[in-house]
DNA sequence: GATGAATGAGATTTCATTCAT
DNA sequence: AATGAATGAAATCTCATTCAT
């Protein structure tokens, strides 16, 4: 369990929001993201979150003005951290678009499977959330996607990739990467590493189709 | 004492038998599946369901002994119908494994996008459901998967497909097909038909990889 | 319009013994008495009763106009049968008041323990029952008590018994006899017969006190 | 990950710990015991309890995680207090086992009649309560009984009492004492004191039988 | 005589939220 | 910063009762 070896970067790389800088907040956010991911947003009560942190329900309201706020912030934090890791990886990975894309997919699935199983649930945002919150979350997805899209476009431009519909390819890729942790959860822990690599290899086929 | 003929073992006379599959039940199941798919299982109250059917919520308990039961039954019905349609299609589609697989994917995505948008939600079964219900739902998935797996295996045997890990390919395929309705929901209705075809084409790449 | 159907008097449930009519009614009454005794009046739903009889809830309303009616009738039946057995016994048992009283107690406790465990629950009549029903049930108790009271009075008159307060003695006796099945339920079946005899012996002390 | 120090074994974070025995809890327990005793456990809704305390029913769940929990706790409190009073009395009452037993019975019946009419109802524990709760309640009974049993044994040892079956005697005694408040409830208030004394005198016969 | 269907009132339970301290 | 207490709305579920067939 609780394996993610927390990226202890100094302050969040993105001075994204006015997020108060306590480490307490980070603890709450982590616990919340974990729980929401595990059981789904609706199924997790604030008491669950509080209990895991060993504080009382009410005290969460000191940091967040509502459950939705907490939910949004948790997803945002997760997304930020996630994107940051992907960006860092890209910075360290030279080579052709193909090589870099494969590495990116591999890292993404790895994060999902090892550190955020069931994050998929998190992105199934409740319909009734206010538009502003929904937008914030979609923004995350976009930044995320851009990383992949850029590489795919480079590969197409260089003739390395052949793709009919870039949007479709990206959507399929994302879907598969998001679900991966769910089916991998049923694999013995030892087999997961290999599964992650297989997913990366398999998904590369999406950009190398020969018509 | 006197006359009662049967030994009623457990004091709590709960076990509600599978009721007849009358027309009414089907109506309830349909309404429920629709709503659960639209907004997620947790977000739909029995009152919502009852309202859509124009009955009182209590009366749902005549047919189902709990919300979970209703949920499971709704998924099951959906899955059965879905599989039946896929099987029917396969029966009518001759040709190579490749041609038939493409048709199968196309049909599957088509059903998802046009008839059961957001069915994905339905299959994200609440963790806390009793094991028996979870098993029932996994069974559905298995039957479903078998259709695809058989074709893929045929294609491999005939040399038409090249696949590294058949399990991984099937999982990725399924993930993409399940999510399709979610992103298609944002497309203008006119564009969806084309999107479905594109998904089918794109996913075929997963079995035609040339190393 | 009014007078015509006066002739039709569907068996008015008011009349004390419309009961011999139909062995079906007896079956219902037996099942109900048993269940009410086992788990308490409130905890037994009409569905429980119906289920044990393998009919539907609604059909009970053909025989009884309400749950309370059924409850009252069940108690009444039980009480009548019980009293009848006691009277029969007395008719067959000659001897001194002491011998006869002991036999009576023995029989009463025996019925309770062997045939109607937990009948005690039945006599804890819900407070909110209409006065008329409560009266009917008190009437039962009185008939019952009279059997004991008569014998005790005879014993006092003959000098065989010494009793300070006859009312108190009868109440204590009754209390102990009613509870007996509850504690005997925890005894191994083989030991119950002996326990019944011991209760009878013990309770005789209540009328044989020497000041 | 960060801070959660404990391995929270079962996902459902239900286990509500025994809360502090503040004054408020006592108020709730008293109100509940009173109501349950008056009308029977099943017939008392949490709203009744809340109403009497002038709070909302939801707030009871801050203290107790279910109605059963509240029920058990109420009985337990009642039983504890009751036993304590009996023990205190014994501490203050010198004399032969006979004198002390009579005082004990008198006190017990007095408490029942004057302070907890219908406590009997409380001890008719619903069958469907979880075994653990049933055990807790049986434990109470045992502590209670021990007080009486010890005295009876002393009396036998000293030759003051003659008893065939000590278990049976204790059970009968207990039954009579428990029911006393029910029949006394119908007496005019003025007569109750005398009735209590009579019960005590009458029950003493159970240990003084001369064969 | 009996059933299947439905209702409506009320019960238990959950939970986001507020607030005084 | 945090807690304990409480609230109120809504959700799940139960059940006696009715009624057309």
From TrEMBL, chains A, B, C, D:
Residues in HTH tetR-type domain copies: 22-82
Pfam families: TetR_C_24 (PF17932), TetR_N (PF00440)
Alphabetical UniProt keywords: DNA-binding, Transcription, Transcription regulation
Domain of life according to the entry: Bacteria
Region listing for Disordered, in residue ranges: 1-21
Keyword flag Disulfide bond: no
UniProt key word Ribonucleoprotein: no
DNA-binding positions: 45-64
SUPFAM superfamilies per record: Homeodomain-like, Tetracyclin repressor-like, C-terminal domain
Name of the protein: TetR/AcrR family transcriptional regulator
Organism encoding this protein: Amycolatopsis ultiminotia
